[in-house]
Amino acid sequence: MSMMIPQCATFEGLVVVFVLMGFCDGCFITIMAPIAFELVGPMQASQAIGYLLGLMAIPMTAGPPLAGLLRDHFKNYYVAFYLAGIPPIVGGIVMFFVPLETCCRDTPTWRRTYEAHTHTHKGSSYCKNQVQFQQ
Fold first, then answer.
1. Residue 67 CB partners (closer than 8 Å, separation 6+)
2. CA distance 2 to 29
3. HEC profile for 101-124?
4. d(CA 81, CA 4)
5. In a 3-state reduction of DSSP, which class is residue 135?
6. How far apart are CA 33 and CA 36, in angstroms?
7. Does the pTM exceed 0.90?
């Protein structure tokens, strides 16, 4: 959405973009806790959310000074807005391919690889929540 900001020629256009950005940000923050709860379980959910917020703080802290440097160099903020829009697009493309990976999990090759990995790492915390294959 930040890539749309330089495209807005009127104040009303900016308002529409900012309302959409606020809505999407609110949805992201709202869904973060249930996703963390499902991925790591109830005992580690608060720690996972803390790590996620800590990692989010890095670009939020570094972004404004870097945008200022880009503005000083290019004499406008367009490049900063366009560069800020690239990570969400890349993330969306990666997430688009996740279902393809999960549908390929029950192939014989994947099963042999998974069983070999779990056999060599018995007892590790990684293998405690093993996927149960349907026989």
1. 77, 80, 84
2. 18
3. HHHCCCCHHHHHHHHHHHHHCCCC
4. 8
5. coil
6. 5
7. no
Picking from 5, 6, 24, 13, the residue whose alpha carbon sits closest to that of residue 88 is: 24
Return the H-helix or E-strand segment holding 30: helix 11-40
* CA–CA distance, 108 with 116 (Å, rounded to integer): 12
The string over 33-62, giving b where at least 16 C-beta atoms fall within 10 Å of a residue's C-beta and e elsewhere, is eeebeeebeeeebeebbeeeeeeeeeeeee
Tally the residues of the chain. 135
d(CA 47, CA 55): 12
Show pLDDT as tens, one digit a residue, over the chain (135 residues): 788 888 889 999 999 999 999 998 899 889 888 888 888 888 888 898 999 899 889 988 999 999 999 999 999 999 999 998 898 899 889 888 877 776 666 666 666 666 666 665 554 444 444 455 444
User: Can you state the percent helix, strand and coil of the chain, rounding each to 5?
Assistant: 80, 0, 20
Residue written as tokens 């697009």? Answer: 89
